[in-house]
Amino acid sequence: MAITIHREEINEKSPEESTRFCRFSREAATLRKTYVIREENLSNFTARIILGFTEPKYAEVEPRIDPAETKAVTLSPLELEDGKPDVVLVISNPATLMKVLQVHNRASGERLESSCSSSGSAIAGEATALPYMEGKPNITLLCGGARSIGGFEEDELAIGFPYKTFTELADQLSEPDITDALCGCVMDDLPGHLVEAFEEMNFDKSTDHFHGYYKGRALRLYLNQDDDGSVTEMTIYLPIKYDDKKTAERAKESARPLITGKGFARTRENWLDLGFKEEFDNGLEKVARDKKQFDNSIKKIFDVFLHIAAKIESQNG
């Protein structure tokens, strides 16, 4: 999720309600919504200080954005962010964040040293203000409010990355990462009703993937199964052709901040290959039992991916 600190007024509406910053963050990440937060939207006064809306009056508060010149904070899914955010917030379980830290270590050669007390306003302070002020990533175990009010699950943690640091992670997307994503399971191993659900969306079955068109774009879909045979991951693959290799390389650089953490971007001569991964914790085959829900869910994923592709193409036309 992208977090941008605005030190000047912006012409964007804020939500009518007020709640905790962690709650806005959670909803922006899970519901793929954009929020423009102003001081009056924050029900927790400490978060107003931490995010730089106001100065502390009686005692120092750390970490916090200093000086207090914040006019608004934008929270947005990274793929919907048009500019360069200040902080990228990654929310996931320990196993996934372990892999994120491994990639960060490969990219930077540095260990991540966390500053974390979990005493309160952890998303605002430990995952936003600290990376913003110190220019380095920080991991937080969250706080009681984030879990009881913000809606964060018991097995979730968060890492706040400065935008520049986050984009550098893309350089460590190795060929095995890409190969694994595009090694789909054999289609004959899939439940019949799942195959039928994709075919009803006009996607034909090949040996190890589905292929078809959505809104005029040729897509390939690779499904991966876990050890129990449940389809827990789908990778959407889209090749984009450019006039020359230089333009394709430039497009890859544009794709990095948009696709990191959700897929990959690589070049082949004058082609840009985009991959977008979506996970299904409960199994895609279960979603497919409700054809309407399946159709809506898959189309929503396609729309997000094609929005990213369109943004890349508009920047490198």
Could you walk me through the main structural features you see in this protein, from its secondary elements to its overall organization?
The longest helix has 25 residues, at 291-315. This protein folds into two domains: 2-170, no CATH class; 173-315, Yope Regulator, Chain: A (2-Layer Sandwich), CATH 3.30.1460. The model has no long low-confidence stretch (mean pLDDT 88). 36% of the residues lie in helices and 22% in strands. The protein is of the alpha+beta class. The chain is globular, with a radius of gyration of 21 Å. α9 packs across α11. The chain has helices at 21-31, 45-50, 94-108, 122-134, 144-148, 163-168, 175-181, 192-199, 245-259, 284-287, 291-315; strands at 2-6, 35-37, 72-76, 87-92, 138-140, 157-162, 203-205, 210-214, 217-225, 231-241, 263-268, 271-279.
Taken in chain order, the helices and strands follow as EHEHEEHHEHEHHHEEEEHEEHH
Radius of gyration: 21 Å
Distance between the termini: 26 Å
Mean pLDDT across residues:
88
Helix content: 25-40%
> What is the domain total for the residues?
2
Individual helix count: 11
Q: How are strands sequenced across the largest beta sheet?
A: 2-3-1-4-6-5
Pfam families: DUF169
InterPro entries: DUF169
